[in-house]
Amino acid sequence: MRVLVIGAGPAGARCAVRLAERMPGAEVTLAGAEAALPYDRVALSKLLAGDATIEDLITHPLPMLQSLGIRYRPATPIAALDRAAGEAVTARGERLPYDRLVLATGSTAIRLPFPGADLPGVVLYRDMDDVRAMLRAARSGGRAVVIGGGLLGLEAAVGLAHRGMTVTVVHAVGWPMERQLDPAAGALLTRRLGTRGIRFAMPASTTAIEGEDRARAVLLADGTRIPAELVVMAVGIRPNIALARESGLPTGRAITVDDAMRTADPAVFAIGECAEHAGRCIGLVAPALEQAEVAARAIAGEAAAWAPRADAAALKVSGTAVWSAGEIAPEDAESITLRDEAEERYRRLLLRDGRLIGAVLYGDTADAGFYLDLITTRRSVVGFRSALALGPAFVREAA
Ligand SMILES: Cc1cc2nc3c(=O)[nH]c(=O)nc-3n(C[C@H](O)[C@H](O)[C@H](O)COP(=O)(O)OP(=O)(O)OC[C@H]3O[C@@H](n4cnc5c(N)ncnc54)[C@H](O)[C@@H]3O)c2cc1C
C-alpha cells in the first residue's frame, strides 16, 4: 500500500512514523513544504529566546526516517490533489500516487490586512524562517512591536526582549492571553512581564504600519504612534484547507473528519490543525499527535476513534509559570479562588455540578496534572471541595 502524508509538521511526522511501524510492507512518503527536517514547532520560542538551537528542535533526524523506510520529501509543496486518479501533484508538476492520503497541512498565521501589513520588517510567527527573520532584526537591538498578546505573541515578546530589543505588545483585549487566563491572572502576568521591560498597549487596536521602504512605526486607533523596526504579527491562525476544498472534499473552517479522522473520501484522512472534528478545530499539539496515532491505526485497518479532551496550555517563558485548562469563563459556574499577592500566586478553579470544569494557575503550576486529570475524568470533587484549591497533598488528607 502507498501512503502519502502531506505536511511534515508534528502531526504529519508522527503519523508517518506510526504508519511505518504498523505497516512494514507499506510505502510511506512524507512530503512537506518546509526545507527543514521535521521539528518541534512548539519549541520555536526557545530558539527565539536562545534557550535551544535548531539541532535541539529536530524531532525526526534523517537516519531515523530512513531506518523506518519513510521517503522524506522536504521542500515539496503539494499544489493540487487528483482524487479520481489517486495522485497528489507537487508545485513542480510531479505526480505522487497514493492508495491512502493523510492531509496534515496545519495552519498559516494570519496577516491582518491593514495598510503597511506587508512591508519588510513585518513578520509572522509560525515557522523557523519567521524566527530567523526575528533573530536577524534583533541583532541590531532596536524596537519591536508585537501585535497580539496571546500565548504566541507573549512568547515572541519575551524572546525579543531577551535578545535586547525594546518591546511593546499591542493587544485588543484588556488583559493578555484572554483565552487562557481570567483578568486577575492576566494582570499578574502583565506586571511580571513589565519587570522584564515589556510594555503593553491594551485594549488597543492597530490601524496601520507606517513606513515607505520598511516598517517604521505602528499606528493605533487612538492616534498613538509606536516606533518600531520590527513588527511581529501574532493574531491567530487559519487552517490550510485549499487542497481539500479545491478537490471537492467537505470543509468548514477546516477539513471535516469523522472519529477515525477520515474525510468524506474513504481514502483520505486529515489530522492536526487542518482537521475539523465535530465542528471544532484545535490549535494545540497534543490533540494533533493523538489524531496522528488514530489515523495511522485506522489506515492499518485497526479500530480507532479520537475523542476530544480538555484543552490545556502553558506559557513557555522561563521564570513565569502560567497554565490553564478547560472552561475558564463559563457564565454558569461556581469558582474557588486562592490568591497570594506577595508570592504572586493565583489559582482559580471553576466547578459545575460538583465537578471541576476549568482551572487557571499562575505562579505555581506544579499541580496542573492533578487538575487536568479531574477535568478530564469529570470525577466528583464534592467530597474534598474545601481542600481542592490547596492541591493533591491536602486533598488526600481531606478525602
Ligand atoms: C511559536 C509557537 C508556539 C506554540 N506553542 C504551543 C504550545 O505551547 N502548546 C501547544 O499545544 N501548541 C503550541 N503551538 C501550536 C502547535 O505548534 C501546533 O498546534 C502544531 O504544530 C500543529 O501541528 P500540525 O502538524 O497539525 O500543523 P503544522 O505544525 O502547521 O505543520 C503543517 C506542515 O504542513 C506543511 N504544509 C502546509 N501546506 C502544505 C502543502 N500544500 N504541501 C506540503 N506541505 C504543506 C507546512 O509547511 C507545515 O510544515 C505553538 C505554535 C507556534 C508557532
SSE diagram, text form:
Layout (H helix, E strand, L loop, with lengths): L1 E5 L3 H13 L4 E5 L12 H6 L4 H4 L4 H6 L3 E3 L4 E5 L4 E4 L4 E3 L2 E4 L3 E3 L12 E3 L3 H11 L4 E5 L3 H12 L3 E5 L12 H12 L4 E3 L4 E5 L6 E4 L4 E3 L2 E4 L3 E3 L2 H5 L8 E3 L10 E3 L4 E3 L7 H15 L12 E3 L7 E5 L7 E7 L4 E8 L2 E8 L5 H10 L14 H7 L1
Parallel strand pairs: 1-2, 1-7, 2-3, 7-19, 9-16, 10-11, 10-16, 11-12, 18-20
Antiparallel strand pairs: 4-5, 5-6, 8-17, 13-14, 14-15, 21-22, 22-25, 23-24, 24-25
Helix pairs in contact: 1-9
Flavin-adenine dinucleotide binds next to helix 1, helix 2, helix 6 and helix 9.
Q: How does this structure look, described?
A:
This protein is of the alpha/beta class. It has three domains: 2-108 and 237-299, FAD/NAD(P)-binding domain, CATH 3.50.50; 122-233, FAD/NAD(P)-binding domain (3-Layer(bba) Sandwich); 321-398, 2-Layer Sandwich (Enolase-like, domain 1), CATH 3.30.390.30. It has eleven helices and 25 strands. It has a five-stranded parallel beta sheet. The protein has a five-stranded parallel beta sheet with strand order 9-16-10-11-12, with helices on one face. Strands 21-22-25-24-23 form a five-stranded antiparallel beta sheet. A hairpin with a 4-residue loop joins β14 (217-220) and β15 (225-227). α1 packs parallel to α9 (285-299). The longest helix has 15 residues, at 285-299. The chain is globular and about 65 Å long. It starts with a strand and ends with a helix. The model has no long low-confidence stretch (mean pLDDT 96). The protein binds flavin-adenine dinucleotide. The site of flavin-adenine dinucleotide has 36 residues, from α1, α2, α6 and α9. Flavin-adenine dinucleotide binds at residues 6-12, 31-34, 41-42, 44-45, 77-78, 104-107, 125-126, 152, 155, 240, 243, 272-273, 283-286, 288, 313, 316.
